[in-house]
Amino acid sequence: MAIVLYARKSVERENSISCETQLDYCRSMLKPDEKNEKIIPIVDNGFSGGNMNRDGFQKMMKMIRQGKIDKVIVYKLDRISRSLADFVNILQEFKEHNVMFISSQESFDTSSPYGEMIVKLLMVFAEFERTSTVNRVTQAYAHRSEMGFYMGGRKPYGFELVPTIIHNIKTKKLDPIPSEVEQVCYIYEVYAQENVSLRHLLDILVAEGKNPLNGSSWTTAKLSALLKNPIYVKADSDIYEYYERHGTQIISDISMFTGEYGAQLYGRSKHTPNDSDWSDMKLVLLTHQGVVDSDIWLKCQRKLEKNRQITNSYSNSTSWLAGKVMCEKCGHTMTTVKGKINKDGKIRRYFNCTGKSHKRICTGPKVSIYAENLENMVYDCIAEKLSELKGTARSAKKAEPAEMNNIKLKIKAVEQEEQQLVSAILKGGFNEELLALANQKAAQLKNDKLVLYQRLDELKYQNNEAETVVNLAKSWQNADYDRKKAVAMIMISKIIIAEDGSVKIEWNI
Ligand SMILES: [Zn+2]
Fold it and tell me: From the CA of 326, how far away is ligand 1's center (Å)?
């Protein structure tokens, strides 16, 4: 069996840490008894971490699949891949072939229970990243979209798709169906009025017999989707600003937002009706005329957003901490219950002891345990814990200023020696032999200095190197409900609520 030391240096970063230095770090991770095993250094020079088709990497995977390798050591996790999804897949393949995996910088060791837990966490977040891989696909379309092509998807109500040729490329464009467009405009106008809810709007349309002209019928979901679609708006600078504020990437230049053309939002395969986060989407102006004035369109968006907030606070009756919270007094689990509606129209959820509510054997905590407060608190604790998981990487970083300072001092000392040598030569009195020696000494000092500067650069680079693959703390910041729940399941054993309302978290690590 053999141990692979794997190093990769990317093309895009010129002054990144050299493969040789990476291999040195890897060698330092070898255990004394491993020094006699077959060590295979594999180097990929000039490959990016986004590309899996790296010669060395493929060679390593081939050996792994043949069962020839029992351990892989890297300098940093991102040497394997910069994509978390790819990284997790590779880790799984390692596991299938009983390959241990160790990273020197992150103190990552898959053979320890700690490493195993990190792998589980990584998988949770990798899933998250996978859902945004649509981005990559849309990049391929970026060029098309700049030219205002229709980006695909279902035919929007009010238009038909007609083949056309733009810039010598066959594509499709939207042509209005006047009778349908008239309905669309009416729907926007009615909904833009105060006190008209989606439900009202639906009732009005039904009462007036204004059914869709394609034979189907309206639902509040269909109406909501229609009202949110920028295909209908006469996109002007206000629309630009609106999407910019929502973090949408806007492909077309602002100068094109003249209030004439409709726009298309694209980039996500499924845009759920209640999802108002457009930060992973793109907006492009199309070539067809918009049909709804921007102020009316924006009025409708404000109403829809307000709606969304209310429905969200109603629907979220559970907590991502469900199943983990228990009452210290009786040992029973605590479950979420909806409270009364607050002044701001939101319903507060709180945790209730089931020993009290179901069995009447407990009086529960004396204070109300609001789910939101508890969630926020645990959220912060998990963030803290996740940043600790990077533990050694962080403490290694802390030590760096000291090492950098030390090297700077050494450089100073070398420079002083050089200076002394030069002034001694200038004073004269050197015979040829001594002069040759002095030159030799000067060359050596120069070399010392070079080595020290190289090390200094490495340290500097380490400090500002891009985010590593495993930045769990950062992934946590963007975690949605399901992710939070999954992470809490992995990391937390119990959350114990004392009678006075104080909280104790029992971690799985
Ligand atoms: Zn209880």
Answer: 8
